[in-house]
From TrEMBL:
Listed name of the protein: Dolichol-phosphate mannosyltransferase
Keyword Hydrolase attributed: no
Listed GO MF terms: glycosyltransferase activity
Keywords: Cell membrane, Glycosyltransferase, Lipopolysaccharide biosynthesis, Membrane, Transferase, Transmembrane, Transmembrane helix
Highest classification ranks of the organism: Bacteria, Pseudomonadati, Pseudomonadota, Alphaproteobacteria, Sphingomonadales
Cellular component GO terms, alphabetical: plasma membrane
Span of domain Glycosyltransferase 2-like: 16-173
Amino acid sequence: MVATAKLDLVEVMDISVIVPVLKRFDDAARVYAEYRDRVASSGKSYEFIFVIDGQPDYPVATLEQLQRDGEPIEIIRFGREFGESACLREGIRQSTGRHLLFLPAYFQIGGAAISELLDHLDEADVVAARRDRRADAMFNRLRGWGFQKMARFAGAKYDDPGCLVRAVHRSVFDEIPLQDEKQRFLPLLAEVHGFKVVQLTLPQAESDAGRPQHKPGVYFDVMMDLMAVGFLVRFMQRPFRFFGTVGAASILSSLVLMAFLLFQREVSNIPLGDRPLLVLVVLLLVLGIQIAAIGLIAEIVIFTRGDGKQHYRIEKIVEHVSADA
């Protein structure tokens, strides 16, 4: 849960803009100026929090000079790289805004689209951006298409998990902690918890289009995270549904193969003792029982050690008012 004690001690802003600075970044002064102008045009009070993930090449002196010039900037720097989730967590902890705006340290969408993102905060708890990648390189579009299909399999209907641009009500993080690198799937996690989520298709920044995005290892990590999130969303409260299904399929396969072996033994008089298939039958049977047992143990752990927290969110309660009142 995000600490909220700071909100009682300092002036509360309308919008806290959190900018995690990772390995990729554009000119700091230009990025800040573009973001500031768009946020300021909303007419709301704001602050900027730059969280630098131990990047020695990032021009911190530029931000410090802007800070001395009176710009509402707070700078947080890690001693080494801890990842995007750590940057966002610390940014949220240090922020005072009622609403949080996550923006990368480089341009992913056109600056003018930020205003549209903020406008939708009145109707949704999370507003996620999806880049219009029609002008992007073919490889990037194919990669994005592949992740879309994987996201659908995991139960997510929100595209472009690589786009960090999001506007979020602060209350969302009272119920959804940021762990590991699961922040990419915040819209899905928020919807599962009962928050209203809106996805906007926004124009991609020219500097972002056609540019290689990440190293191959990053895509593999995202794939693993996507599978983990899909499993957690579907089976966190009922793990036996997953393990029991896999175990039952394994046991059923072993029984079918065993029936086939017995049929051959009775009809064709083929002995069982020297059949490698018999080993597979035993292996599938034992493996199926073990997998199902894991799911059953997980159910017992959840039942006996559950924290008792609600896994739903009430949007509104309309109480009955008697006519005599």
